[in-house]
Structure prediction request, 379 residues.
Amino acid sequence: MTTSTRGASAPAVLVLEDGRTFRGRAYGAVGETFGEAVFSTGMTGYQETLTDPSYHRQVVVMTAPHIGNTGVNDEDPESQRIWVSGYVVRDPARTHSNWRSRRSLDEELTAQGVVGISGIDTRALTRHLRERGAMRVGIFSGAAVADEATLLAKVRAVPQMKGADLSGEVATAETYVVPAIGTKKFTVAAIDLGIKGMTPHRMAERGIEVHVLPATATAEDIYAVGPDGVFFSNGPGDPATADHPVSLMRAVLERSTPLFGICFGNQILGRALGFGTFKLKYGHRGINQPVQDRTTGKVEVTAHNHGFAVDAPLDAPSDTPFGRAEVSHVCLNDNVVEGLRLLDRPAFSVQYHPEAAAGPHDAAYLFDRFVSLMEGQRA
Prediction:
């Protein structure tokens, strides 16, 4: 990514790898950027989306037409920086208004060097991605704008998301601790593959002291903290490349330590159990995805951000090296696996985001389910 100063009046062009282009105006920093074009259907929570490490190397298209109305505050980021490679909106807010707002979204994008584009038909772009699938894209503005053949060649030279090993690029380099809120009841070792700030907070609310470990952590590192449970976080990239986290999870499963995984952590559990993973055509991103919890029959509206999924049988439990496993949650839009559960060991995972800082909060009970596993193991 190369950027220069803010320039909302600068011309900008978005170029997809299949040659389709959209012309608009610069939004945020001026320059050029590349990534995988994906769309998010959330009408709120843009600040959480931008700072979610799972969006590393992705250019996010917002399907909601008006973005930036509430500006940017200092309380809602899910990490220390914006992780999206680029940002695409139709109508950016001309003014921002909220009692917590500190600056405009345009100013924040500029300050962090995030190249964006506004004033394009995001509905047409979203329909194109739904029909053709997520693909590589470039955004060019100001002096970076050139003839379309030159820009297209740049886009096609960018690495694809399939085969990308990215979790190490977003994970913490050093272990840190999020203390329990109130009385400490449990200790959890959390493997950071791109963890969001709200995740350890949701555990802390339940009396859990969370030790967040780097993606390179070993089994010895995990058990050195004396965990009652182990957590594997969300994160970016292709789970097929995540051989170390898979080996690490198998070591945890061997010891029957209560285990919970979210998003990338769900894919890691799938691989640890012997299932494959595959890339979805355009993924699930947004805060309005219907998922059924098959253990209760309840349907939840949930927050998602994943472009890969686990390939596991939906119709019956499967035999794995760690006992029987079943699909516990499924997306009602397309029958994609949204959760796994071991029947003979205390381990489960979900593909979506129950911490959901921007909402909805239908799936918050999953943290209580993790607590129940640890209580059961202790008993």
